[in-house]
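Chain A, query sequence.
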Amino acid sequence: MKYDLAEMNSLDIYLSSLTNEEYDKIKHKIGTRKSKPMPLLSWDIYMDGYHKRMTEARKRIELEKVLSFAIQFNWQNDLEIAFSENDYEALIITDKNQKIIWVNDGFTSMTGYSKSFALNKTPRFLQGEKTSLRTKASIKSKIELDKPFKEVIINHRKDKSMYKCEVKIIPLYYKETTHFIALEKQVV
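Chain A, predicted structure.
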């Protein structure tokens, strides 16, 4: 270990550079450690667990936000089931006219657009030249049916790069549909 630089601490490097005489002069000033630090051999296991806990916490906060909208607008949907049954990266809530009233942080990560930019726009601003007209027509007709559905669409980020997005759209209702929520994730 003495000359293995990858395993040496700063003091080890300094001490290894001393002659025997120089070391003998200062060794009484060097204390011993009460504990020896151990290298973290399970960093990957720790990070997986940490990432999982952070994702669960973020999703709990997002569910609470959506449930606060549910109270405000008297939605009758069981949103907890919708969240537990669907994986997502981005959330978008629109009104009946498809104007965005709220997006989560995942929306910004996925698209590059800020929350404030997205507000009061329709999600169509994410579509571009590579977005299929057939897919756009399919989404429009399924929205008019007022039933949950899933579709894959090619969207465009702020930097103009394309991505395939799986969109699960759920009508939110109080007697009739008042809003929509889209649970979105990027797919290959």
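The first helix runs from residue 10 to 16. The first strand starts at residue 90 and ends at 95.
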